[in-house]
Amino acid sequence: MVEKIKLVLFDMDNVLCDYDKMARAAFLARLANTTTDLIYEAIWGTGFEQLGDSGALDAPEYLRAFGERIGYSLSLEEWLEARRYSMNPNPAVLDIVGNLRGSVEVAVLTNNTSLVVDHIDVLFPELRPLFGSNIYASAQFKLAKPDPNCFRRCLSKLQVSPGTAFFVDDLPENVAGAREAGLLAHHYTSAETLRQALSDCNIVQETS
Q1: Can you give the residue ranges of every domain in the chain?
Q2: Which of 3, 14, 52, 103 satisfies CB 3.0 to 4.6 Å to 204 for a cystine?
Q3: Per residue in 125-161, pLDDT tens?
Q4: For 9-27, b where at least 16 C-beta lie within 10 A, e where not — what string?
Q5: Which residues pair with 70 in a beta bridge?
Q6: What is the pLDDT of residues 172-186, one digit of tens each?
Q7: pTM, two decimal places
């Protein structure tokens, strides 16, 4: 018998918001007086972000190393401005979250440095009213998705068993990792298919 779902756990980038890495790289390139392609390669072409996502670098180390990689002494405010510039809230999914809150707990697990959660009210102010304090970066657990233990550590923090959790992510490998950890999981492609998947699992969505 399938357990009743008590928690819906959401990825952030490209689920709760649209995230454009090239737009972020272009913003940083203007600051550093270099090219978008060089910024993109320095940050996303080398595996550097994994060091932040996995907590291998703490927040100050990550910010310092980020600046070193792009050849510019980046301030926290500039890092936040570039990150915020690349994010656009997904109203349809945020509406789903709002409609879930009366029937299940909701939370966020994003592959990111802890800087993102520490400054989420600057980066993505729409999240706090929906998720409260249930917003977690993988760096806080010293592991990144799709490692099954990243999910397990997050659920332990939330005091929810894997069999009662439903996870939503745009990356198939993260969905697979969640399933290996014992969660139900949905590969996000659209708000419409997400609504149907929640309905198929008998997760009640209140109407607005």
Answers
A1: 7-18+88-200, 21-85
A2: 103
A3: 999 999 999 999 999 999 999 999 999 999 999 999 9
A4: bbbbbebbbebbeebbbbb
A5: none
A6: 999 999 999 999 999
A7: 0.96
